[in-house]
């Protein structure tokens, strides 16, 4: 009965808390690192992949924008040719700063991203985009509308593009400030109107890990018989979530393989082949490398510690045989 109760409490409390502690510890160095996100959106390899011909070939047969319907591969090929890369980089970089500023200043207002520069670039490229679409459409001999009508629809779609977009407010629900605050990597971050200092975040990280460790040890004592068996059971409780975190770190370390195939939309698996795939692999290695390292190390330490605790079970028979050995020695001396 005690083992069953310990298992139920582990599933309901111990396992989620252990996962939270492991993931928060591994994510804390990079989750709110502004420069890491900015480097990603400014990386030329990202835009080289976006302009890869394989993406156009894998586009849906039809793309609907408002009331207009376009030939998918032809439209994507035209957009790739006229992609406003400098304006995209500038807008994405400003978006990163706006989101982080909204979070760290704690104003509670929804961050608004200015799209006027990007829209102006698209308007300037509009005539060339229409010509490129007509040419691609003629090569494919497809389309739901004549080329002239489709070109006019492209211009209308650009004109209808908003000049700004508002993102959801960074305010958090009550009770979520502490767990998510652990992810901060800056001097402070405001969550739900409350400001958390780095020192407080460090203490919260330690408290989360300590709570998880004490709960696992307590559940091990509840389900085990004797100190060593309780420690071994606690080790098994720690081993399971740590092994999953370790596996996640391993998967993130091979972004050019199975993981990316699962993340890419259906039909775009071919992007992983050839030069675009090599650039994508380099980009994800540079981006996911530090993340994978922190997750892997956290999972490895947790797995090693859990495995070490499990080995305490091997000491139990020796402890039980100690009185018998002492009696045997006394009998030999007599």
Description:
The protein is mostly helical and 334 residues long. The chain has 14 helices and six strands. Helix content is 70%, strand content 7%. The protein folds into two domains: 172 residues, no CATH class; 150 residues, no CATH class. The radius of gyration is 28 Å and the shape is elongated. α1 runs antiparallel to α10, α7 runs antiparallel to α8 and α10 crosses α11.
Low-pLDDT residue spans? 172-198
- Order of helical and strand elements: HHHHEEHHEHHEHEEHHHHH
Total number of helical segments? Answer: 14
Mean pLDDT across every amino acid position = 75
As a percent range, the share of strand residues is 5-15%
Number of self-contained structural domains: 2
Radius of gyration: 28 Å
Largest β-sheet summary: 2 strands, antiparallel
Strand order of the largest sheet: 1-2
Shape: elongated
Helix content: over 70%
Number of strands: 6
Our measurement of the CA-to-CA distance between the termini, rounded to an integer number of angstroms, reads 46 Å
Q: Output the structural class.
A: mainly alpha
């Amino acid at each position: 009965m005690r083992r069953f109760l310990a298992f139920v409490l582990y599933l309901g409390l111990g396992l989620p808390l252990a996962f939270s502690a492991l993931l928060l510890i591994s994510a804390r160095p990079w989750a709110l690192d502004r420069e890491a996100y900015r480097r990603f959106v400014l990386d030329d390899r990202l835009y080289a992949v976006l302009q890869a011909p394989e993406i156009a070939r894998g586009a849906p047969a039809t793309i609907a924008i408002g009331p207009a319907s376009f030939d998918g591969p032809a439209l994507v090929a035209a957009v790739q040719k006229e992609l406003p890369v400098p304006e995209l980089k500038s807008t994405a970089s400003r978006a990163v700063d706006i989101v982080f500023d909204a979070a760290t200043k704690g104003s509670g207002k929804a961050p608004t991203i200015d799209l006027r520069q990007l829209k102006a670039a698209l308007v300037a490229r509009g005539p060339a985009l229409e010509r490129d679409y007509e040419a691609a459409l003629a090569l494919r001999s497809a389309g739901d509308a004549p080329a002239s009508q489709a070109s006019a629809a492209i211009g209308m779609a650009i004109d209808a593009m908003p000049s700004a977009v508002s993102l959801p407010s960074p305010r958090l629900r009550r009770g979520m400030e502490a767990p998510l605050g652990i992810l901060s990597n800056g001097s402070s971050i405001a969550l739900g109107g409350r400001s958390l200092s780095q020192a407080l975040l460090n203490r919260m990280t330690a408290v989360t890990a300590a709570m998880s460790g004490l709960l696992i040890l307590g559940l091990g004592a509840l389900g085990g018989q004797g100190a060593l068996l309780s420690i071994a059971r606690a080790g098994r409780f720690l081993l399971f979530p740590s092994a999953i975190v370790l596996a996640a770190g391993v998967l993130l370390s091979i972004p050019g393989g199975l993981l990316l195939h699962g993340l890419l939309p259906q039909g775009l698996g071919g992007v992983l082949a050839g030069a675009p795939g090599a650039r994508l692999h380099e980009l994800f290695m540079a981006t996911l490398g530090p993340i994978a390292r922190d997750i892997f190390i956290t999972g490895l330490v947790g797995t090693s510690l859990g495995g070490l605790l499990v080995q305490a079970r091997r000491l139990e028979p020796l402890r039980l045989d100690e009185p018998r050995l002492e009696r045997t020695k006394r009998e030999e001396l007599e």
